[in-house]
Structures are given as structure tokens and as C-alpha cells.
């Protein structure tokens, strides 16, 4: 492919993403294109609230395909993520087949057929006719054993079900994996993925996001909001506000009819800070003087 | 191997194929097959737009945050001819070693045989042995610090294996709850339509590290923090706190995937670092504010301190007595223990001793390696 062709693709994808409400920097768009070319999963790392999950959602909407989401948690096991047998229906079928003339082997084949298989997100993703976007969210919350289960899926796009055999993907889903870095992921997983580190957005990018996602906010207010949030992020906080918090805060300010962020309005800004600051200790770091100082700098 | 179509690009092919090897020499987790993937990616992207190629290869060849941040420099170094580097960058020496590639150690003057390739691994191994038994306060060279960190990580990974084995046994699926199933079957005339399942309830073992960062501990606290970071990366449940005259939680800062940012956060947190010590007050603060969340029945509490306390010894003793009721193990790691003639006669240690399960030495990595596996095993 020529460089110009690829650059056009990249600009096109960026534009499509922007129309769907996501401001993507060129490196991320380049990674998304490469993900399609090489049919590899994309691992997104970065702090909570920088918009990792959103990438998968918007990718599904741009491609006009389904988003299948697997939310990981501690103790997530293979059955909850891949498939389960519908025991109740199987037992019922056994009961119904009691007077059936067929041999045991045939009955067994009948009972362990796809009819009694409950598809969980991973199996569902590889069984779709049209390739979906599979989001494996916060993989660092699941334990290492589950990560190992994922490897077969991610490298070969197939799953083994002992009673049925191997299910090979009818179409390869676009896999997006996110991690907040609460646990170190295995090298095996990292090697199978493309990688993208997503940082908090800079001023321009965040302003573009606010303008796109909260069009009701006047331009001057949007600029002040972003400057304020960027200032908050520079402080030493337990939980820095992410993009979602910026948008929540924007909505809160609009709702209260605040049209300008300045020193004099510090009291009213204090009332809306719960949309931005999410822990008690962090809240203690925002007395009126600090808010006034931040607002004055906007 | 794949080649690019145009003959003009033959040199570019060779350059591209060599790039993964260059990254590997600089500590990147890049495999042998990656040269082929790089060429495939280059075919998709084209080699004429350097920015596009950079972004694509960065997505392809990076696997973690620090690689992501260093990539641009290495990309420039490899693809911009005048600056091409032949040797791995200095700060990545430790990573290169992890992949079995030992950078050349500075040879003593006049001894040419030390440069011999065959001798290098053996020298490296013996150097590791020496390093692990060197008192932390004598480790000042940058190389030694990097190597000791590497050893810490390796050791932490060994601890992880202990834990995984135990967890694998405890994790043998959910089990059928027979009495529950029978009870539920009453409505269906004894046919078990609705199965009941039992799930094992377990609490993960946890290590809580309380690291003394007062002035007298200065040569050691730096290494203990690195150890806490290495352990935190490998074991799922570690809580770390630092204390001098007051206590500060640092787990979050240590878990930051970016080591440089972690360092910045620690500096911010550690106001008063290197000052006096009030172990008792810090422990009371820990007991009152943190212990409820941080300590449970499968917790080992590790206090890493020399025991020199300027506070009230009775306060220390009372706090430990309280904590004794919450934690499974209380272990005091004291870097001075290994020194000849040392006896725990200072007030702080005297007050603490009756409440400890173990007082262990911890001036070097070898002594920590000797004591930590037992502590983790005791939490089972």
C-alpha cells in the first residue's frame, strides 16, 4: 500500500471516529488499522477514565457491528466467560428421552449438542456470522488462570469444548482488551496483542472531546472547564478525574446554569465538585481557596 | 521471509528486519518471529511515511508502558542512519539480562581473558551471588542497583509460584451442593431440575509492609521500597506504607505502571522523609486508620525498621499488641541484625519483641529471600 493511501485511510478512520463521538490521536487510529490488517487483539493500558473502554464501543459503532463485552472480575472462571451447559434443559431432555428407542451414544450426542449450550461472551464472539467487536474489559481484575485461558482464543481464535470438540471462529472478531495496570499482565498475553498506552488527554484533545460530547456548553465555558480539570489533574490526588468526570462536571455546571468558571463563583463550583472528585481524601484537598485559585487560573 | 515488492526497498527490508533485534538488545520483550510480523506490518502500512510506520511499529512491538515511552528514541536511533546505536542503552542493561543477554561487565585492567565470551555467564552468575549477599548500604553504583532490582523481581516471581500452586488446588471449580439440590428438587417430585452449587469462600493471603524511612534507615529504605514495588508487581495482594513520624500509604504510588511517575509520587508523599522516627505513633495511626481495611485473618504484617524509636516504647508495645489480634503473623525485619555483636537491646526492639512472631535480618537480598517464602507459606 502506498503511503498516501494509508494516510488517507488513517484520516478517514479518525474522521469516522470523531463523528461517532471519539477523538482519536493518529497513533491510536494507526493501531486500529493495523489491528484490522494483522487480525490481532489490541491491548489498551492506561489510568482509569482515559477512555479505553470507549475505544471498543466506538469501533463497533464505526464498523456497524455488535459489541460483545466481557467484564472481568476477580474469580471470573472459564465457564462464565466462554460457555455453560444448560443443565436444567439437559435433565429435562434425559427424562424425555427415557422411552426413546435410540442407543445411548446417540442420546448422549443429542444431549451434548449445541442446543443445550449457553453461549457466554467469548463463544458468542467467535460464533457470530459478522465479525463483532469483542471487548475484554479490565483484564487485570481477572486472575492469572483466566488470562491463560484467553491465550488460545487470542492466538488461534478457537475454543475447546471437551464434549463438542474445538469451535473455530466463523469470522475473526476485533478484540479490544483493556487494563488499568492494577496487576502485571503476563508476557504471553502482551506478546499476542498490539499495544497502545492511553494517557490523560492534553488540553487541545480534551477541549475537542468536550466540544464534541457536550455541544450545549458555550466555547468559552468549555475552555475554562478543560483548563480547570487539567489543573486538578496536576495536583497530587488519589483518583485523578478522567474524561467521563470532565463530561459529568460539564453537565453539572450547565444544569446549575453556571456559565463562567471564575474566582467569584468558587462557592457554586464547590457544590458541583462531587462530579469531579471521587474520594474523601481528595475532597479534603479542595478547600475554597484552592478552588478559587484553580478557577482564577482558567 | 517476506520481502517487499520493489527492489528499491530491499535495503529497507533488511533495516526493518533488524529492528526487532535492536529492540531486544535494549530490553524489549520481542520474540524471534517478530521480524516477519514487522515486514507484514510494513507491507500494510508502507515505508514511505515515517510517522505512520513509527505508530504502527510502536503498537506492534511494545508490550508495556515503559517500552511505549522509550520506543520513539529507539526508533530514531535505528532508522535515522547517523545516530544508529550499536550497543544497548545503559539504563536498559538490567532488562537485557532478563533475556539472558548479559552486557559486557567492565573488565579489570590488564586481564584480557575476562573478556572471553565463555566466561561471561559464569562471571555474571557469581556477580549475582555476591550482589544478593551484599549489604544494601554498600550498593551505590547504578549498575548494582539495577541488578539487585532484577533479582528482587525474579525472587518475587518465585513467591508467585508458591501462591499459584496453592490457589490452583483451592480453585477446583464450583462443586455440586447435594443437600441443596435435593431440597430444591422437592417441588419437581425428586427430579433435580434446579441444581445448587457450592463455591469455596476464601480470603487471599496478603502481605502488609510498613517501611521505616527515617534518617537512620536511609541506606535501606530505598531498597525496601524497590522490594515492595517488585513484590507488588508479582503478588496480587500487597499493601505498602512508609512511616517516620507519621504513616503514609504508598501502594498506589508503587503500583503506578510508570516507574518515573511512581518515583515522583513517592517524593510528594514522603515529606519529612529522612527525619526522626516515631514507630509507636505510626503503628497506632496504622491500627486506627488502616488496619480495619488492610489487615485480615490471612495477613502477614512486615515491619521493616531498625527499631530506633524516639517515641514512647509503651505506645509501640500497645499498638503491636492490638495488631497481634488482627494479623496472622507479625514479622520485624531489622537490617542491623546481621551485624556482628548486634543485640536487640534498644528500647524500641525491647518493647516490640514480646509481640513478634519473628525478628529477622534484612540487610541484603539473600536474607530477605531466606525469610519471605516461609512467611508467605505460613499464610496458607
Automatic annotation (TrEMBL), chain A:
Protein name: AAA domain-containing protein
InterPro entries tied to this protein: AAA+_ATPase (IPR003593), ATPase_dyneun-rel_AAA (IPR011704), CbbQ/NirQ/NorQ/GpvN (IPR050764), P-loop_NTPase (IPR027417)
Every AAA+ ATPase domain range: 38-199
Alphabetized SUPFAM superfamilies for the sequence: P-loop containing nucleoside triphosphate hydrolases (SSF52540)
Single Gene Ontology MF annotation: ATP binding
Tree of life domain: Bacteria
Coiled-coil ranges (or none): none
Phylogenetic classification of the source organism: Bacteria, Pseudomonadati, Pseudomonadota, Betaproteobacteria, Burkholderiales
PANTHER family: MAGNESIUM-CHELATASE SUBUNIT CHLD, MOXR FAMILY PROTEIN
From TrEMBL, chain B:
Pfam family, one: VWA_CoxE
Composition bias, Basic and acidic residues: 89-102
CDD domains reported for this sequence: vWFA (cd00198)
Top-level taxonomic group: Bacteria
SUPFAM superfamilies in UniProt: vWA-like (SSF53300)
Residue numbers spanned by region Disordered: 89-124
Record InterPro entries: UCP010256, Uncharacterised_CoxE, vWFA_dom_sf
Coiled coil: none
Name this protein carries in UniProt: VWA domain-containing protein
Native organism taxonomy: Bacteria, Pseudomonadati, Pseudomonadota, Betaproteobacteria, Burkholderiales
Amino acid at each position: 500500500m502506498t503511503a498516501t493511501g494509508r494516510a488517507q485511510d488513517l484520516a478517514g478512520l479518525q474522521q469516522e471516529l470523531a463523528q461517532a463521538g471519539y477523538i482519536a490521536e493518529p497513533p491510536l487510529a494507526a493501531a486500529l488499522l493495523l489491528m484490522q490488517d494483522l487480525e490481532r487483539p489490541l491491548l489498551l493500558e492506561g489510568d482509569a477514565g482515559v477512555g479505553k473502554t470507549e475505544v471498543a464501543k466506538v469501533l463497533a459503532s464505526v464498523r456497524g457491528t455488535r459489541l460483545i463485552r466481557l467484564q472481568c472480575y476477580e474469580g471470573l472462571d472459564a465457564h462464565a466467560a466462554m460457555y455453560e451447559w444448560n443443565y436444567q434443559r439437559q435433565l429435562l431432555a434425559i427424562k424425555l428421552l427415557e422411552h426413546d428407542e435410540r442407543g445411548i451414544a446417540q442420546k448422549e450426542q443429542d444431549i451434548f449438542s449445541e442446543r443445550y449450550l449457553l453461549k457466554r461472551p467469548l463463544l458468542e464472539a467467535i460464533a457470530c456470522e459478522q465479525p463483532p467487536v469483542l471487548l475484554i474489559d479490565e483484564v487485570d481484575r481477572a486472575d492469572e488462570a483466566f488470562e491463560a485461558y484467553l491465550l488460545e482464543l487470542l492466538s488461534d481464535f478457537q475454543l475447546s469444548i471437551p464434549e463438542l470438540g474445538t469451535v473455530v471462529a466463523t469470522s475473526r472478531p476485533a478484540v479490544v482488551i483493556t487494563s488499568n495496570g492494577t496487576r502485571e499482565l503476563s508476557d504471553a498475553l502482551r506478546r499476542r496483542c498490539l499495544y497502545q498506552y492511553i494517557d490523560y488527554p492534553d488540553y487541545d484533545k480534551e477541549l475537542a472531546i468536550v466540544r464534541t460530547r457536550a455541544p450545549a456548553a458555550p466555547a468559552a465555558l468549555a475552555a475554562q472547564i478543560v483548563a480547570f480539570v487539567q489543573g486538578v489533574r496536576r495536583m497530587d490526588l488519589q483518583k485523578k478525574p478522567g474524561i467521563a468526570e470532565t463530561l459529568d462536571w460539564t453537565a453539572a455546571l450547565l444544569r446549575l446554569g453556571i456559565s463562567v468558571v471564575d474566582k467569584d463563583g468558587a462557592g457554586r463550583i464547590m457544590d458541583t465538585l462531587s462530579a469531579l472528585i471521587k474520594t474523601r481524601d481528595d475532597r479534603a484537598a479542595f478547600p475554597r481557596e484552592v478552588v478559587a485559585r484553580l478557577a482564577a487560573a482558567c | 521471509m517476506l520481502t517487499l515488492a520493489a527492489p528499491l526497498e530491499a535495503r529497507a527490508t533488511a533495516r526493518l528486519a533488524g529492528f526487532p533485534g535492536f529492540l531486544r538488545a535494549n530490553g524489549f520483550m520481542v520474540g524471534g518471529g517478530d521480524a516477519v510480523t514487522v515486514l507484514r506490518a510494513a507491507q500494510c502500512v508502507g515505508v514511505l511515511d515515517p510517522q505512520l510506520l513509527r505508530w504502527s511499529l510502536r503498537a506492534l512491538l511494545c508490550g508495556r508502558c515503559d517500552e511505549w515511552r522509550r520506543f520513539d528514541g529507539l526508533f530514531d536511533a535505528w532508522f535515522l542512519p547517523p545516530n544508529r546505536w550499536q550497543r544497548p542503552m545503559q539504563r536498559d542493561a538490567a532488562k537485557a539480562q532478563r533475556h539472558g543477554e548479559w552486557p559486557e561487565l567492565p573488565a579489570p585492567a590488564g586481564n584480557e581473558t575476562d573478556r572471553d565470551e565463555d566466561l561471561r555467564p559464569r562471571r555474571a552468575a557469581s556477580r549475582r551471588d555476591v550482589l544478593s549477599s551484599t549489604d544494601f548500604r554498600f550498593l551505590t553504583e547504578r549498575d548494582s542497583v539495577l541488578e539487585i532490582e532484577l533479582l528482587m523481581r525474579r525472587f518475587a516471581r518465585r513467591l508467585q509460584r508458591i501462591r499459584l500452586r496453592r490457589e490452583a488446588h483451592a480453585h477446583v471449580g464450583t462443586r455440586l451442593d447435594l443437600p441443596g439440590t435435593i431440597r430444591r428438587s422437592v417441588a419437581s417430585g425428586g427430579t433435580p431440575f434446579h441444581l445448587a452449587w457450592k463455591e469455596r469462600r476464601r480470603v487471599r493471603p496478603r502481605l502488609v509492609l510498613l517501611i521505616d524511612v527515617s534518617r537512620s534507615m536511609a541506606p535501606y529504605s530505598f531498597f525496601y521500597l524497590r522490594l515492595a514495588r517488585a513484590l507488588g508487581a508479582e503478588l496480587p495482594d500487597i499493601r505498602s506504607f512508609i512511616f517516620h513520624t507519621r504513616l503514609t500509604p504508598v501502594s498506589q504510588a508503587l503500583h503506578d505502571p510508570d516507574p518515573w511517575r511512581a518515583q515522583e509520587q513517592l517524593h510528594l508523599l514522603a515529606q519529612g522523609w529522612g527525619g526522626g522516627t516515631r514507630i509507636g505513633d505510626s503503628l497506632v495511626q496504622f491500627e486506627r486508620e488502616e488496619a480495619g481495611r488492610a489487615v485480615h485473618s490471612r495477613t502477614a504484617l512486615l515491619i521493616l525498621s531498625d527499631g530506633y524509636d524516639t517515641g514512647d516504647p509503651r505506645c509501640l508495645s500497645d499498638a503491636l499488641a492490638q495488631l497481634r489480634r488482627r494479623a496472622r503473623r507479625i514479622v520485624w525485619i531489622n537490617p542491623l541484625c546481621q551485624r556482628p555483636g548486634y543485640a536487640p537491646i534498644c528500647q524500641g526492639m525491647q518493647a516490640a519483641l514480646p509481640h513478634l512472631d519473628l525478628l529477622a535480618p534484612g540487610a541484603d537480598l539473600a536474607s530477605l529471600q531466606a525469610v519471605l517464602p516461609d512467611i508467605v507459606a505460613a499464610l496458607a
